[in-house]
């Protein structure tokens, strides 16, 4: 009798197990189907957005800031390609006079002289003339993720260039610095210092490059719909145009280690830049959030 009861229990457990496995497989199949349909739908949306905005609109209407004299402020050589490539490329194409202020020579690995030459070569590919490049060599601004850059020093350098070059538009990092590099963020805090101290020339409009989460950062072209939905100022490139930014980045030969090749392949910043206009009120709000 006990043997028969044991058989019944085993049969019940076995049937329950089979039913559970079957239900689980159906759930997994449906889940994969829904995800696949969602991905296909999203890819179609990306293609529609690309065709509508990247291919059909005239170049001069795509994301124009209405700028004539633009200063791009970066922390290191290669930042101009890794992060600001689409903005620099498009501004040059739209006829703006683009200047680049690089706050260090990238001497973190003792390659400062080499990286200086690479910066000039890369900017030539992007369309920035040699005479429009300003590279700072200041012992207080060393390329080092552990170094705390002096905000007043950066602010003074930026103000000098804005006034000397009669700049009407300034573009640089936001507080996140795209990669959370402290040197990048220091540039933003220098802008905040200038706004708070009322040292920012009134005629100069300031834009910061949006930092995004790591998923969006490596979506590449697939971030187009989100970029259009979440930002009113954006610069993006056709496939053929993005290859020029890639060529410029590859001029930084000392920095092209294996993971940078992956970055060039997948990063949205090689094809898309979204910008946010900031003023004193925005700065005060961000500083209040920090507090």
From TrEMBL:
GO CC term (a single one): endoplasmic reticulum
Highest taxon of source: Eukaryota
GO molecular function, one term: N-acetylglucosaminylphosphatidylinositol deacetylase activity
EC number, as in UniProt: 3.5.1.89
Keyword set, alphabetical order: Membrane, Transmembrane, Transmembrane helix
Similarity comment text for this entry: Belongs to the PIGL family.
Name used for this protein in its record: N-acetylglucosaminylphosphatidylinositol deacetylase
Short name of one Pfam family: PIG-L
InterPro entries with a match to the protein in the record: GlcNAc_PI_deacetylase-related, LmbE-like_dom_sf
Transmembrane segments: 31-50, 257-275
């Amino acid at each position: 009798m006990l043997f028969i009861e044991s058989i019944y229990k085993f049969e019940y457990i076995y049937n329950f197990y089979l039913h559970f496995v079957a239900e689980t497989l159906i759930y997994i199949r449906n889940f994969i189907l829904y995800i696949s349909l969602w991905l296909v739908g999203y890819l179609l949306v990306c293609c529609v957005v690309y065709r509508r905005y990247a291919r059909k609109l005239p170049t001069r209407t795509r994301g124009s800031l209405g700028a004539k004299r633009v200063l791009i402020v970066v922390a290191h050589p290669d930042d101009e390609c890794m992060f600001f490539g689409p903005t620099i490329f498009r501004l040059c194409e739209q006829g703006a006079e683009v200047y680049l202020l690089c706050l260090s020579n990238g001497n973190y690995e003792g390659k400062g002289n080499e990286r200086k030459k690479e910066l000039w070569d890369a900017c030539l590919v992007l369309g920035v003339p040699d005479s429009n490049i300003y590279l700072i060599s200041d012992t207080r601004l060393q390329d080092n993720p552990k170094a705390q850059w002096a905000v007043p020093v950066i602010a003074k350098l930026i103000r000098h260039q804005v006034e000397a070059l009669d700049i009407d538009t300034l573009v640089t990092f936001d507080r996140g610095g795209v990669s959370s590099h402290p040197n990048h963020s220091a540039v933003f805090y220098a802008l905040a210092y200038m706004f708070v101290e009322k040292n920012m020339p009134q005629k100069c409009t300031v834009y910061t490059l949006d930092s995004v989460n790591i998923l969006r950062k490596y979506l590449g072209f697939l971030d187009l719909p989100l970029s259009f939905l979440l930002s009113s100022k954006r610069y993006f490139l056709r496939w053929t145009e993005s290859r020029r930014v890639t060529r410029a980045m590859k001029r930084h030969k000392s920095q092209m280690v294996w993971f940078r090749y992956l970055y060039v392949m997948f990063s949205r910043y090689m094809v898309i830049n979204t910008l946010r206009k900031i003023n004193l009120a925005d700065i005060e709000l961000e500083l209040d959030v920090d507090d």
